[in-house]
């Protein structure tokens, strides 16, 4: 008989809580990965995974949580915390070098406290030329509030390019997010197009015309992932 697991996501609060019920093994870990990935699309302040009703059948299946945490570290830059594992699952988690990147708390309330508050600013922008200017204003304001003078200039350039790429190629409304999770300042733009982000623009002198080539030069890391029906293009810069 094949194993089954259900995933209930509660996103009414800034912290998203995913409650798993059933057996976790190599067969069900894929559905868990999809549920956690879907919960990340809303860019919560933290992602808490409740394991109280989970029967871990295969210790290797626990790697799904480490994979989710590594993805969430880049985008949407949120901490992932596990809570209330069974004694056996807790031991396996502590013994696994892969899973040590994910904090484990005894209960959901403690997990929420461990996750902590996330410094984040967002804006919803339309795909118009003015969007690049508004994106620069957003990241400049964020760097001023968070005392990051050295990051302000490079971050404004990078975010302007990410937004300009959406204006030129995707042409959809976008969610722009600036997040501080030291040691990095995280920038992300989520649009409504699933088309892969393009590397460069045709006019290198136009606003936002240098495309992702400039992002590659200035960012510590950057990338693009599916996000709902569209995609998220993200970049990480040193938070200084």
TrEMBL record:
CDD domains: HATPase_RsbW-like (cd16936), STAS_anti-anti-sigma_factors (cd07043). PROSITE patterns: STAS. One of its GO terms (molecular function) is protein serine/threonine kinase activity. Transmembrane segments: none annotated. The keyword Repeat does not apply. Keywords: Kinase, Serine/threonine-protein kinase, Transferase. Residues 15-115 form the STAS domain. This is Anti-anti-sigma factor.
